[in-house]
Amino acid sequence: MHLVGYAWLREAMQLSAFPLRLPAIVQPVTRLKKIGQTLAVPSATAPAADDLLGHMLFALKHEGVNLAILAQALPKIPVTTLERALQEAPNGIYIRKACYLREAFTHEEVPQHAPVRGAFVPLFDPKRYVTRSGERNSRWRVEFNGLGNLNYCATVEKASRLIELQEHDILGRAKAFMESLPPVMMDRAINWAYLHETKDSFAIEREAPSEDKSRRFIQLLRQAHERQPLTEEYLVALQNATVSNPYDLAAAFRHEQNHLAGALSGHQ
Q1: Domain residue ranges of the chain, discontinuous segments joined by +
Q2: Which residue among 43, 163, 189, 216 has its CA within the 20 to 30 Å range from the CA of 253?
C-alpha cells in the first residue's frame, strides 16, 4: 500500500495529527476518485516516495487544507526547497499557499526572487469548506478565509447534509416566523423563556430564587446577545449580580480548590 499526500506525511514524519478520514492511496485507477474510505490515486499522479514537498503540494491541491498536519510538517521543509520550487512556478497557487503557511508557522521568510503576481487565492476552497471573508496577505497574495485564525481555526467541510441544512435556512425561516407574530405574543413568549431558564439554572443548585434574584438573573439573560469580551472583570461582575450573600461575592478568579458535596454523606 503506497500512501500519498497527507497520509504519507503523517506516517513518514510520525506526526501527531489525527488519522485521516479519507487517506490518499495509490491504486490501479486512471484518475483520482473516492473508493470506499480512500482517495484512489493513479501511480502516474503520485509524487515520488521521498518527495516531501511534492506530497505536501499534492495534498494542498487534491485533499484540501489540513492545518494539523501542515503546521507540523511545513517547518521541517528547508527554506531552500521551497525557494527552488517557487522559482520554478513563481505564481503557482499551491506553492504560494505552502510558503504563506510556513512563514506564518515559523516566522522565517521564504526568499522571493520576483514579486508574486496574479489574483488573490483563498486558502480554503469556498466550494469545499464553510468560509468567511478574511485577511489578505499581499506578499503571497493568499487570503486567509478560515473560521478563526491560524492559531485556532475550525475546519468545516461542506458535506451534503450540511449543504441541505444551509439551503433549508433554519435561522432565516425562524426569523421570518418571529416577525410574523404580534409583538405582544413575542414579548410573552420571550418573558416565559427567560423565566423558565432562570428557574432551571437555579434548580441545578437546588435553589428556588427569590423574586429579586430572578429579576436580576433575567436582566443578565437579556444582555446575552451583547458581544462582551470574557474578561475576569466581566465574569466577576456576572457572578456578583447573581449572588445575594455578600460573603459569597467574588473579587477575582478562584485561587484555591472548591469542593461540591456528593450525593452520599461524607463524599466530596
Answers
A1: 1-64, 78-84+95-168, 172-242
A2: 216
Q: CA-CA-CA-CA torsion for 88, 92, 97, 100, nearest 10 degrees?
A: 60
Q: Which grid cell sits at 174?
A: 425562524
Residue 265 has pLDDT above 70, yes or no: no
Q: How far is CA 42 from the centre of its chain?
A: 32
Contact 40, 25 (CB under 8 A): yes
* Strands 152-154, 147-149: pairing kind: antiparallel
Report pLDDT digits (tens) over 146-191: 999 999 999 999 988 888 988 899 999 999 998 998 989 988 888 8
Measuring CA to CA, which residue among 72, 28, 65, 20 is closest to residue 46?
A: 28
Give burial (CB, 10 Å; 0-12/13-18/19+) of 118. exposed
Rounded distance, CA 60 to CA 38, Å?
Answer: 16
Q: Could you tell me how far CA 134 lies from the centroid of its own chain?
A: 14
User: Chain-centre distance of CA 155, in angstroms?
Assistant: 5
Residue 74 CA to residue 1 CA, distance in Å, equals 24
Measure the CA–CA gap between 181 and 178, rounded to whole angstroms: 5
How does pLDDT run across 76-93, given as a tens digit for each residue?
Answer: 999 999 999 999 999 999
CA–CA dist 123, 96 (Å, integer): 10
Q: Give 212's contacts (C-beta < 8 A, 6+ positions apart).
A: 244
Look up residue 246 and give its three cell numbers.
455578600
Neighbours of 195 (CB within 10 A): 15
